[in-house]
């Protein structure tokens, strides 16, 4: 099976075109003001106008309320919610029901975390997937760090790998984790929030190689 790809932190129209041309399955918008890759609803609305059909859109939120998310969705109707803060399984379930969207949860892999039990909490609450990211004591994603990929579990829910992915390591990452999908941001940038077309293309080539080797 071909590994799915989301490229997150899109801030420019030309980057939308680069991601689509490279064949990514989804693009991500960061609705979290402290992030250098953040966009507001007006910027997201403009970017969405340049997106063709069959490419999914994901909105990343950190500890946002249902009202805050609904306000964004009215102008920028993204497809899927990515909860990337301290949201509990019950909170994710409630917010998603309020705004009428599918959702998944990003989990930072701390050294003492029971990964399987934590994933199952969100799975039972209705998550469409779970994203596993590197842990950082202050940052909420986009750290450029990676966790121990040998900890990546194999469960009956789609699992997304994030954290420290680059064109150089993505092939190995896919072979090691057998993740359903991968999520990259900083690894395909020339500067924070500025995507690099060549890096995106190289990343996608690595994904294809890694996926093909899984089928060997």
Question: In words, what does this structure look like?
Answer:
With 216 residues, the protein is of the alpha/beta class. It has a single domain, classed as TIM Barrel (Alpha-Beta Barrel). It has seven helices and ten strands. The strands form two sheets. Strands 1-2-3-4-5-6-7-8 form an eight-stranded parallel β-barrel, surrounded by four helices. The model has no long low-confidence stretch (mean pLDDT 94).
Q: Can you count the beta strands?
A: 10
| SS class | alpha/beta
Distance N terminus to C terminus?
Answer: 11 Å
CATH class category: Alpha Beta
Which stretches are low in confidence, meaning pLDDT under 50 for 5 or more residues running? none
Write a concise synopsis of the structure shown:
The chain has 216 residues and is an alpha/beta fold. The chain has helices at 13-22, 41-48, 66-75, 89-99, 115-124, 170-177, 197-214, and strands at residues 4-8, 26-31, 56-61, 80-83, 102-109, 129-134, 159-162, 181-184, 189-191, 194-195.
Outline the fold blueprint.
Blueprint: E1 4-8, H1 13-22, E2 26-31, H2 41-48, E3 56-61, H3 66-75, E4 80-83, H4 89-99, E5 102-109, H5 115-124, E6 129-134, E7 159-162, H6 170-177, E8 181-184, E9 189-191, E10 194-195, H7 197-214
Parallel strand pairs: 1-2, 1-8, 2-3, 3-4, 4-5, 5-6, 6-7, 7-8
Antiparallel strand pairs: 9-10
Helix pairs in contact: 1-7, 2-3, 3-4, 4-5, 6-7
